[in-house]
Amino acid sequence: MYDHVDFDFTECFDEDCGVYESPSTLETAQNRAAQTNNQATGAGLAAANSSQPSAQPAGFPAPAGQHQHPEPPPITSQPPPIAEPPPITSQPPPTPQNTTTNPTNTSQNQQPIEPQNSELGREHAGQRVTVLDLAAAGINPTKIFELHSLRDYTDSLIQLMTSIPDDEKVVLVGHSLGGLSIALVTEMFPQKIDVAVFLTAFMPDSRHTPSFIFDQFMASMPSAEEYWLDAEFKSSDDPNDTITSFLFGPRFMSKLYKLSPPEELAMTLKRPSSMFLEDLSRPESKLSEEKYGSVRRVYVMCDEDEAIPPAFQSWVIKNDEVKEVRMLKHADHMPMFCMPKQLCYCLLEIALKHYAANSDDSPTSDPN
User: Domain coordinates of the chain in residue numbers?
Assistant: First the structure.
């Protein structure tokens, strides 16, 4: 039994992380959701493993010793057609104490997020949030080449999860590259996580090493040069360091923020980041079905995302057989900027649904 609902909102590319708890107001939740991204630099997509800055980046090289995997469908400008149920009504979700909810939906039943009532869920909103800057992100003073693994990068979130009492749980939310960080933390603390929400994110599976998802992403890309545009890639000056950093240029950033207010892009703090491909291709980095696979997962799609296109989002969902899928319509890669109210509504509904299911101690045969 829980005394509150937590969100851990992980946005991992010069971005913030946070945890939403204890209800107050919808406006508070929206403001907090926006604050988690004030330092964001871009989509945080994987960097090409090149040794020097390049105006024509190549795709990721396949990790050594890794077998070829089936390629996902080529990325298209439109998501594959998926049947949708009727839109969400204007009524706020019922209180957790009075609700028994089936915690899963099939991927064919994506729920469009269309809030119609400004009073929606006021008594449920305003979850307590702890905002974090991951290593070498936001105002965190660490330099990117001081990091050697995804675990180093995710250290502040790991420390937060360590501090949470064993009888409490959080809702992790990872955006874009943040999907890798919340997957790592889910593997480490499955008993403390109510549900993991992947917001137009890279979501690894438990059958391959995490680098597999990036191999498939690059394989689905018709042209690396057209995709990366003016992004720059650079290796460490230390010959013993395998980290490759990337920095997005103005053209690539404009693609990420296509539908977002231009002032949000202007305020963005740009810092180099990395995908830690060497670390993620190691056999020991593979996630387990017993831990990572035991936690419920929800995927939130953005149908006008040009950084992680909807066709690839759909492939990620199918690859890991995620059964609960939501759709943010008319959203680019940065829904926290282009439609913060709809995103807030979506996250609140997910949290309350899974909170109610767990408060009722309803058993489920499938964690997803």
Answer: 7-359
